[in-house]
Amino acid sequence: MVTGKIAKENRIDSLQGIRAIAFLGIFLFHSGAAVFAAGGTWGVSVFLILSGFLMVYSYYDSDRIDQHGFFYSIKFGIKKIMRLYPLHITMLLLALPLLILKDQGLPLTERILDPAGKFVIDTALLQSWVPDNDIYFSLNGVSWYLSTALFLYMMFPLILFFIKKYRGIKTAVIVILITFGLQILLAFAAYLVQRNLIPKDDLIHWFVYIFPLSRLEDFVIGCNLGYLFLQRKKTNGNGKKQGNLLEFSVIILTVIEWILYVCLIGIPEKALSAENWAGLTVIWTMTSCALVYVFALQKGILSRLLKSRPFVFLGNLSDSCFLIHLMVYTYLMVFEDILFGKTAIVVNIILAFFITIAGSCLWKKIVGGIHNKRMKG
Fold first, then answer.
1. Which end of the chain is more exposed for a tag (fewer CB within 10 A), N or C?
2. Quick check: 375 pLDDT over 60?
């Protein structure tokens, strides 16, 4: 979600709309409603491919990255996520009381060590490297994405170095196809390992969906897609005229995938099961690529809609909304359960959405105020 800064005149506002839609998919998935079971895995796929695409789009023709050594890459990755890191820590602090309450039945030492250990791991952004959902989903569950993103951004200078060595689009196409083939192979291999060798319930979910090295596949595909887009702009002018046909086709294809996914999987709990090894990443990869590329062209009526203020506004807030929304859902359900003994999904969705937007706007204002004071100082 965190990408390089793009000059205003070169921004692709329709992709901010795509970012907004991807966030909404994840947001609705966390509501627990079965109809939105596809939203989480689909939204993360779009985020990662879009992130790689925009990183190359932002950095390829600039001289802002002129190294790819080990220490430089670490510094680059940390710098990319620092804007969101204070919000990440804030969400961890909000999650701590809930974890402490959850651990009330444990012995005193465990009640202290369990939250403390998880807080340290999450603070260091190491949770996505641990194959245990009690760790990578601990505290603010969605923060695993920031842990994975940190690694991806550390890898970006090296990825960009190789992409700049390409002599044409054929290399990028081959890299995309090989990486996608590897993604399918490793996901299926992980399924076989869990079924036959290591019967650990969340192993495949961690390896395919969470593990940074596995999500590097999506990111690399997105980076190469960004290169293809830049080369097309240079060599093919305005591109295809069938913008509306392309945009409606990719939307219809995505909707069909959503429907099939929901009908075959049915509930969010099954969406994370081993039998759903392809649904965690593989089935979304190519349609996510098509969605990002087609709407980056900005040639149809739908891309004009996604460039409208509401979508761009939500897209600009999506990174902070992503980190905030699960905590909002969690606290809402806790209070509703205490007050009413039950929770209402529709009410939660509406309340959580507006609270998340308000919280994100407030956070942006606080961060902006601190930045302005530093600039004046």
1. C
2. no
Determine phi and psi for 106, rounding to 5 degrees. -85, 160
Q: What are the C-alpha distances in Å from 377 to residues 307, 368, 369, 373, 374? A: 36, 14, 12, 6, 5
Distance CA 22, CA 135 (A): 25
- Residue 306 makes CB contacts below 8 A (sequence gap 6+) with 13, 14, 16, 17, 18, 20, 21, 295
Which token pair is 89? 């820590």
Decide: residue 277, CB within 10 A, 0-12 exposed, 13-18 middle, 19+ buried.
Answer: buried
Residue 272's φ and ψ, nearest 5 degrees, are -110, 15
Domain boundaries, the chain: 8-316, 317-377
pLDDT tens digits for 165-215? 999 999 999 999 999 999 999 999 999 988 888 877 788 899 999 999 999
Whole-number Å distance between alpha carbons of 227 and 168 = 10
Q: Using 50, 70 and 90 to split pLDDT, how confident is the model at 377? A: low
